[in-house]
Amino acid sequence: VDPKAEAQLVFSAASGAHQATEAERAALASRPSLAVRALASATGHLKEAQMPLAVALAAMSIFEGKAPPPLDNESGMERERAGALTKALVLTTGFHRSEGAALVSKA
User: Fold this and answer.
1) How far is CA 38 from CA 68, 69, 107, in A?
2) Torsion of CA 66, 72, 78, 82, to 10 degrees
3) FRET partner for 99 with CA separation of 20 to 30 A, picked from 26, 32, 38, 90?
4) 98/94 Cα distance (integer angstroms)
5) Is the pTM of this model over 0.90?
6) Could you read off the pLDDT of 4-31 as tens digits, one per residue?
């Protein structure tokens, strides 16, 4: 993801497994211009349903043209995001293995 690209939002579907989640958190923190939504903050980890849910939320956000409000106000990781939304990145990491990414964009 180009941190200078406009209209970027990242939905994290991380499992919460310590090592993988901390690596993702560090990578996202190194790009403070990206708005992040940590899905598990609101839902807990839904195992196999986590990634499809995150993709669906990204698609709905793009359809609406705006980012949803932050899901987690305590971690400091999520920020408000203004402006039209045309692209969102969905990231996932599992408990023991597996990673995934999906770029969702307006057609």
Assistant:
1) 11, 11, 25
2) 30
3) 32
4) 5
5) no
6) 555 478 998 887 777 777 888 888 888 8
